[in-house]
Amino acid sequence: MLRCLWLFLMGIGLLMAFEPRMVNAQDKSAYVNIYYDAKNQWFVYEWENEGEIVRGGYDPPNKVKPFVKATVVFDGRDTYSYRYEVGNQEGAVQVLEDIFISHKSPVFDATAPFPEKDWFMGEYRDYNEWEWAKESALPAGEVAKGFSFSSKGLPAVVEASFYGAQRVRTNMPGDYDSLEVNDAFSELYDKIEEQYADKFKDVVVKVVGPGEVPKDFNALTFVDSIIKMKHEAADLGWITNDGIVKSLDAKLDSAKKAIQGGNMTTAKNVLEAFIKEVEAQGCESYDSCNKGKHIKPEAWALLKFNAEYLLSKL
After folding, report:
1. Domains identified in the chain and CATH numbers
2. Residues 92-132: pLDDT tens digits?
3. Other C-beta atoms lying within 10 Å of the C-beta of residue 246
């Protein structure tokens, strides 16, 4: 569910003309009306205060169309640099203003696009999410490079959340309104959230970000995690050739069987072949990726760096 309190505080602009489609509010409509304005794709609130009708609204900040390209660079010791290109595709209704990327290990040395001073950067409360925010940052059709942070965490599949600029100032009943109005609003708002659940959904996509470094390393458990990453990478379209998917599957299965049998020499040889295939069929970054490559930088980082970590532990 959207971070409602934060979204209410971030609302901007003025409420404009509406073409309402009323929701059956039963007896609560004596105090409050709430409806979804399909033309403008936002919600309208109406209530009475001292004989006058007060109108407010809420524009869910999920009408953006983000895309993310990720590249991961390893320093050869223990630190990974996660670098992102973010865009808001044509057809987006809202300007993209806020970006959150989750992480399972601490991050540091963050950067933002130039000029960096125009961006807010920081940890989002206790959610293990790093935030970049800037007013009017990415209108539809625009792209920005320069988002990055570093981490000791191994590459993993994580979530990124995106929020658009609200086109109306959020307004709702409060301390100057009656208890009946506030109670009615709370009840009707819950019904609206249920009725229009799809309108309140966060915009979330999968990206590569910092995962965890195993505290108690187990080779079999770790090779299973790589197998799972490979499946997810293929499902996300980061591996674009079925033959390569099957070839990588076969190598990982062979490595797992060798580890189960205690044959670490064979396991190492298979993992080295696995890494070489990832390198040969993939791209380290989008800047160096040609049409003949079938493993995108996201999958390249996931598979290569985790396989190298496993190899170093055998």
Report:
1. 4-61+167-199 (no CATH), 66-165+203-209 (2.60.40.1170), 214-313 (no CATH)
2. 999 999 999 999 999 999 999 999 999 999 998 888 999 99
3. 9
